[in-house]
Specification:
The structure is a homodimer. By secondary structure, chain A is an alpha+beta fold. Chain A contains six helices and five strands; from the N terminus they run H-E-E-H-E-H-E-H-H-E-H. Chain A has a single domain, classed as Cytidine Deaminase, domain 2 (3-Layer(aba) Sandwich), CATH 3.40.140. In chain A, about 40% of the residues lie in helices and about 20% in strands. Chain A has a four-stranded mixed β-sheet. The interface between A and B is large, with 92 and 90 residues.
Chain lengths: ~160, ~160
């Protein structure tokens, strides 16, 4: 199987699970060494979890399958360009590559605000989408100091 | 309790759970109507889940506690400025407000790449962090068409 086939599988998951209207129209698969190791689809409404986008659920399932918190050597195939949450999750997961079919503009046409989120981040204006307040606390800085002093810490 | 007390609780969670070195030094709480409804802390390594940042785990727990996929009327308190994944998760969850103590620069000092992610998104250069490939598929566009045609769909 090649890129096109893996991406078609992600699209098939989107089609299958969104047919009833209670899962958003998004699917994703994670591939390592030419094999699908995990599949995901949008479960925001059905699973009552706003973070359960297709890519995030696929990343979680892949980490469980591989017994690790890192997905080096994996490619994420998504039926649609990942939103900033999913893109960031893929970066944190250290995937090698992301391949996607539909775009953020397509998602906007289907009623999903991904582009609005991208624009707020691009313009460094997160406050346009949600009120943000910075309240510095010495205790919070001490937590980081202690982390750096701790030789037992597991960096990731 | 006011902002400062709720934020100190988020910091206390960060301190408590990172003391052993296997949970990252981040904590968060979600508050509605003056009461803490959920708490979260970083479980990336301990839970083998790269998406298990403090804010994401708190958002998931709050949705479970309130039996909903939306957190309108809630404030998210985080020991540190949310990374783009957590910020986006908070936007998707429709929280009213985010209050944070440490900053992305503080996180960088402690060894966490949040600022690098913010900069890639700001510069519209996601490819700097992970290889991105767009492979348009007619099947993916059809999934969105069918979604829009489906009167049973639950918009969110």
């Amino acid at each position: 199987m090649g890129d096109r086939e893996f991406l078609e599988r992600a699209v098939a998951l989107a089609a299958e699970h969104s047919a009833d209207g209670d899962c958003g129209p998004f699917g994703a698969v994670l591939v390592k060494d030419g094999r699908i190791i995990a599949e995901g689809w949008n479960r925001v409404v059905s699973g009552q979890d706003p973070t359960a986008h297709a890519e995030v659920t696929a990343i979680r399932a892949a980490c469980e399958a591989l017994d690790t918190h890192e997905l080096k050597g994996c490619t994420l195939y998504s039926s649609c360009e990942p939103c900033p949450m999913c893109f960031s999750a893929a970066v944190w997961a250290r995937v090698d590559r992301i391949v996607y079919a539909e775009t953020r503009e397509g998602a906007a046409r289907a009623g999903f605000d991904d582009d609005r989120l991208y624009r707020a981040l691009q313009d460094c204006e997160p406050g346009r989408l949600v009120r943000m307040e910075h309240l510095p606390l010495a205790s919070a800085t001490r937590v980081f100091d202690r982390w750096l002093e701790n030789d037992e810490r597991i960096d990731y």
